[in-house]
Amino acid sequence: MKTNTSPKETWFNRLKMQWEKIATNRKLLPIFLVVGLLLSFAIPQFNLLNDYVILIIVYIGINIILSTSLNLINGYMGEFSVGHAGFMAVGAYISALLTTKIIPEELAPWIFPLVVLAAGAGAALIGLLVALPSFKTRGDYLAIVTLAFLMIVKSVIENIEAIGGPRGIPGISKLTTLPWTFIWVVIAVAVIRNFVYSKYGRGVLSIREDEIASDLMSVNTRQTKLLAFIISSFFAGVAGALFAHILQFISPRVFDIIKSTDILIMVYLGGIGSIAGSIIGAVIFTVLLEVLRPLGMWRMVLMPLVLVILMIYRPRGIMGLKEFRWFVPGYDLIASKLWRKKKEVEDVAAS
Fold first, then answer.
1. For residue 57, what pLDDT is reported?
2. Confidence of residue 346 (pLDDT cuts 50, 70, 90)
3. Residue 343 has what pLDDT?
4. What is the rounded average pLDDT for all residues in the chain?
5. CA nearest 126: which of 147, 103, 153, 105?
6. How far apart are CA 321 and CA 89, in angstroms?
7. What's the predicted TM-score (pTM) here?
């Protein structure tokens, strides 16, 4: 008996098969990286896209760094941090002060990578201090601690006139370019991916499942948490530096609870415990935010509403606890394949 399939279903199935081939072919990843790097130089050089589209692509890259780094805490480790905008603010202000008050303007473009590294290091140091209360708190209590940290950072910046106070820092040089954004996105994704699949990353996953049990199984939970918080806050600071030098103006109001909520939406939209999910969530959120711009302030109502709907109907997000094979080490793929074969043999024997 033949089943009638519509042309749309046939086209969708073909598209799905082609996508699965691409997503499972690990040899294509280096090619995509090289092509992406070349395009990041060619697009602005030959005016292939207008300035507005390039700006949106840069924002997408910054949001990918933010969502991937927060996913390390909220997704892989199973904690709930709402203070990511605070680390971003630290990185943004450190980099802005370096390029506007310390480094000569003519040298700033040449040592901008060092400025970004300094911003990340400063945010990582603050992340180390925030990680200490995480030894005693989890879940909602950690959310309160990180929220308090965000409010402290915002209040401190507002009350220091030497760094602009509530007026912020204007006149920042536009040093964030498409190539630099692409390079930092690749670095952030590569570092976090390698950390997740390292022995410390396994420890992070065990903390998510059961912190007491992982501690009993000789996992150094304190060291693992420290590393996770430091890496996460470092890349939040990197994103803050890139953000400050593309926006060319920062103020404490930019890094409020709404900014943290935006990052949370990206993480939970794309999917917890998934690097691919973080990338997808950042792309969808940034594009959707621009599409809804004609709605004005109503878009700020719709985006948190999206988060509420996600938590009700798909709490793990689009790619929750799933990953593209590009990001999975080869030995993990082999091990999972052998495990599936063993399970199939056992199921056949049991039946």
1. 97
2. confident
3. 78
4. 89
5. 153
6. 29
7. 0.92
Contacts of 309 (CB under 8 A, 6+ apart): none
Rg (CA), the chain: 22
Q: Which residues of 214-241 are buried (b: 16+ CB within 10 A; e: fewer)?
A: beeeebebeebbbbbbbbbbbbbbbbbb
| Phi/psi at 169 (5° precision) | -120, 110
Among 43-57, 212-226, 303-317, 337-351, the range of highest mean pLDDT: 43-57
**CA gap 57, 29 in Å, rounded:** 20
Contact (CB, 8 A) for 154 and 148: no
CB 182 within 8 A of CB 41: no
Which residue, 293, 90, 324, is CA-closest to 189? 324
Residue 122 and residue 94 in contact, taking contact as beta carbons nearer than 8 Å: yes
pLDDT tens per residue, range 184-204: 999 999 999 999 999 999 999
Q: How far apart are CA 142 and CA 134, in angstroms?
A: 6
User: Which residues, at least 6 apart from 247, have a Cβ–Cβ distance to it below 8 Å?
Assistant: 172, 254
344 token code pair: 């199939």
Neighbours of 68 (CB within 10 A): 30
